[in-house]
Write a structure and sequence with these properties.
The chain has helices at residues 2-18, 72-84, 97-103, 115-118, 137-147, 167-188, 199-211, 214-230, and strands spanning 27-33, 36-39, 55-58, 63-65, 90-94, 124-127, 152-155, 159-164. It is an alpha+beta fold. It has a single domain, classed as L-fuculose-1-phosphate Aldolase. An eight-stranded mixed sheet has the order 4-3-2-1-5-8-7-6, sandwiched between helices.
């Protein structure tokens, strides 16, 4: 479990450098087993988070290891997804700016207009029914139902959730999702029509990208090398 703590701490620190976080809000979690998951504690900024700061929480929301509290929306979103979708070992929820911008416009969708977007071809769900803060189990269940078998769900007027079987793969997806959204927002700012890729090419490129997931592991390894040099306290 220590290695997963360190990996989670690394992507928290790196996400802060990329501006993917929002204050002390948003959460990343890792399902340790069927009854427990790791998550960041309330009030700790991502730029200062260390491996030891992560809380081990049980299915009832009680902290069984670590010091701090679980923010309620984190419990209702993350644990409901972990519990319902075992393939979602890692759950990442952010209000990252470009992706959230797309959730904030009418019928906002990630368009297949750049290579980064193609890695998510037919793998994004959209929840267009914003209902306020996720402060009860039913809201978490609704988000989980919207996600279904997809890797990403866009939450209207809110943000995104990315899930994956591993920390490296989930973070790699989160990173490229925001880059794809950034490219689309910049392209749309020119007021010129988007150049949409043909469905056959989308399917081909998606298959090519998904064929080799080792890129995600190398991405996380590179992040940890940089943090080991510049901010080694993350692994404490």
């Amino acid at each position: 479990m220590l290695s997963q703590r360190i990996n989670l701490a690394a992507i928290f620190r790196w996400s802060d450098r990329l501006g993917l976080n929002e204050g002390i809000c948003n959460h990343y979690s890792w399902m340790v087993d069927e009854q427990h998951f790791l998550i960041n504690p309330f009030g700790v900024h991502w730029s200062e988070l260390r491996a030891r700061d992560l809380l081990l929480v049980n299915e009832g929301g009680q902290v069984v290891e670590g010091v701090g509290q679980v923010e309620p929306t984190a419990l209702f979103i993350h644990w409901r997804i972990h519990r319902t979708l075992p393939r979602a070992r890692c759950v990442l929820h952010t209000h990252m700016p470009y992706a959230t911008a797309l959730t904030s416009v009418e019928s906002g969708r990630l368009e297949m207009c750049c290579q980064n977007a193609l890695r998510f071809y037919n793998d994004i769900a959209y929840d267009d029914n914003y209902q306020g803060l996720a402060l009860d189990a039913s809201e978490g269940d609704r988000i989980c139902a919207a996600l279904g078998g997809k890797r990403v769900v866009f939450l209207a007027c809110h943000g995104v959730v990315v899930v994956g079987p591993g920390i490296a793969t989930a973070f790699d997806d989160l990173y490229y999702l925001e880059r794809a959204c950034q490219i689309q927002v910049l392209a749309q700012s020119t007021h010129r029509p988007l150049r949409i890729v043909d469905d056959n090419i989308c399917r081909k490129t998606y298959a090519q990208i998904m064929q080799d997931q080792s890129f995600a592991d190398h991405h996380l390894t590179a992040i940890r090398r940089i943090l080991d040099r510049e901010s080694p306290g993350y692994a404490d």
